[in-house]
């Protein structure tokens, strides 16, 4: 008999026996990797491991991934080494997992991270190291019961390093807005569906560039909502999602405090930081354009 044919027959027999010995529903590492989709939207490498019953962050993906989608899995814990291989991630989606705990240092390697979605998990706080990520602009932590957040924020180092522009803390069981210090770039915050009981305009002084705010389905008093609504309009922001009473409350009972707010030290400090950021950004672009023109000029001369 042909030895080649015998070898093929033996290999087939071993494969069949191995599959029969595997428990029903077993999915090997290679099969998992095949299920993850490799895409390139906007020239960025996106890996989509959506709804794969994963219990931890897979370590066999391409390390150059820039968008990692791990939504709808069964991950309960993020470990220190979960993202050590994936330092190029810009967008991280962990929506609808079962994340309960995050080891210290988990997000430290993600210095390029611009957006993270941790919504619909089992978190009781936000890992404070997230607020020190130097590129983070968008943070979604909605639909987590953040009972320990106020306590943990007492030791938060401020000003935070993350240049936050969008923050979603909707449906998190919050009684107060989280105090993250001065946020000169924050333009949108969603705090809806929280048992917020009171909110003063002074609280918004550290969000001097706020453009829209969602306070629907909260327990904030009519007076406080009216004050916030008028304050947002005063600074040129949208008050569309700040519900108010049909009848304006008398100014003697519910005075407008926004003049004191915009003249406060906190507000002025926030504005100063925002202007400084604009100047630095303009200088960076000027230097980048000058360098590009210099390179182009050198090539033309050659």
From TrEMBL:
Task: Please name the SUPFAM superfamilies in this protein's record.
Answer: L domain-like
Q: What UniProt keywords apply to this chain's record, in alphabetical order? A: Leucine-rich repeat, Membrane, Repeat, Signal, Transmembrane, Transmembrane helix
Q: Where is the signal peptide?
A: 1-18
What protein name applies here? Leucine-rich repeat-containing protein 4C
Gene from which the chain derives: LRRC4C_3
This entry carries the following GO cellular component terms, namely: extracellular matrix; extracellular space
InterPro entries, A to Z: Dev_Immune_Receptor, Leu-rich_rpt, Leu-rich_rpt_typical-subtyp, LRR_dom_sf
Tell me which Pfam families the record gives. Answer: LRR_8
Q: Does the keyword Transmembrane apply?
A: yes
């Amino acid at each position: 008999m042909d030895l080649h044919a015998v070898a093929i027959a033996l290999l087939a027999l071993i494969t069949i026996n191995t599959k029969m010995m595997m428990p029903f529903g077993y999915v090997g590492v290679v099969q998992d990797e095949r299920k993850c989709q490799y895409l390139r939207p906007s020239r960025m490498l996106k890996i989509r491991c959506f709804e794969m019953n994963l219990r931890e962050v897979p370590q066999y993906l391409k390390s150059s991934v820039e968008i990692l989608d791990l939504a709808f899995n069964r991950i309960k814990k993020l470990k220190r080494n979960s993202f050590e291989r994936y330092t190029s991630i810009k967008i991280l989606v962990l929506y609808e997992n079962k994340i309960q705990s995050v080891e210290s240092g988990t997000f430290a390697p993600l210095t390029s991270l611009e957006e993270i979605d941790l919504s619909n998990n089992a978190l009781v706080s936000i890992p404070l190291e997230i607020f020190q990520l130097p590129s983070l602009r968008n943070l979604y932590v909605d639909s987590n019961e953040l009972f320990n957040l106020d306590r943990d924020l007492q030791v938060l180092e401020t000003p935070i390093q993350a240049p936050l522009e969008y923050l979603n803390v909707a449906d998190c069981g919050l009684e107060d807005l989280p105090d993250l210090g001065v946020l000169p770039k924050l333009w949108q915050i969603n705090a809806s569906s929280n048992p917020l009981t009171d909110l003063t305009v002074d609280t918004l002084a550290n969000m001097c560039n706020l453009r829209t705010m969602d306070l629907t389905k909260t327990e904030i008093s009519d007076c406080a909502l009216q004050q916030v609504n008028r304050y947002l309009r005063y600074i040129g922001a949208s008050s569309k999602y700040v519900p108010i009473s049909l009848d304006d409350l008398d100014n003697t009972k519910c005075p407008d405090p926004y003049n004191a707010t915009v003249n406060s030290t906190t507000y002025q400090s926030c504005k100063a930081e925002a202007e400084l950021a604009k100047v630095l950004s303009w200088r960076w672009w000027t230097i980048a354009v000058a360098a590009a023109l210099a390179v182009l000029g050198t090539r033309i001369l050659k």
